[in-house]
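Re: 2-phosphoglycolic acid structure - here you go.
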Amino acid sequence: MEVIYVKDYEEMSQKGFEQIKKVMETKESPVVSLNTGGTPKGLFQYLVEAINQGLDISDATIMSLDEYIGPKDAVYTVRNFMNQRLFNNIEQQPKHLFLMDGSTDDVESEIKRYKELLATYPRDIQLLGLGTNAHLGANEPGTPFDTTMFLAEHHESTIQSTMKEYGITREEAPTEMLTLGLKEIAEAETVLLLVSGKHKAQAVKDLVEGDVTPDCPASVLRNCENAVVIVDEDAASLLTKE
Ligand code: PGA
C-alpha cells in the first residue's frame, strides 16, 4: 500500500482525478469503478471538466462500488449521485454503465448479475472512500477479508453519516446496501482510496498504524501492492509518523 500525503481536499481531489485520467487515457477499454459520498465530489468535478474538454470515455465502462437499498430515485442513491454529478453534466457517455439495482425485490439475482459483470469486465481502478469506522463500501468492521458482493447492514455511524450527507432523517435513511466485498475491492488492478478531514483521522491511524484485522476493514489494503491511499493533512493528523 502506497500512501500519498497531500495538503487538503482540493489537492486530494486533483491527485485522485489524475489517477482516473491516467487509466482512461492508457487503457484501450478502461473499466473504472466509482464510489459516491462527500469524498469524491471534487474528483467528479474534475472528471466532468476533463470529459467536456475532450477526455475520451467512449470506450470506457463505468461501474459502481455499492448501492443503497431503496427506490431508484431516492435522494441518497448511488444512481442519483452518478447522474447528478457526472452523467447529466457530460455530452459524451461511456460505452457501458453498470450500476447496481437497489430497488430490486430479488437481491440474490441482482448479486449474481453484478458478479457476472465483474468477471466479464475486470476493473482497472476501484475508487473508494473511508468510513469514520474504517469501512470500505458497506464492509463494516467485522467483515471477513474474503467477502464477496453481499447485502450489508449499516452500522449506526454509517447511517448517521448518510443522514448528514443527504440531509435526511433517521426514518428516511437507508439501512442496507449492496456492496462489493473486500475481496473484490482488493482485486481491482489499482485500488484508490481518498481520505479527507479530521473526522477520518482515527480511521486513517487505524488503517496506517494499527493491526491488519477485519475490525478495521480498510486494513485489508495494507498488504496490497496495488493500493494507493491519498490522505490530506487533517485526515493524517493523528498519525505518529508521516
Ligand atoms: P464520505 O463517506 O465520502 O461521505 O465521507 C465515505 C464512506 O463512508 O465510505
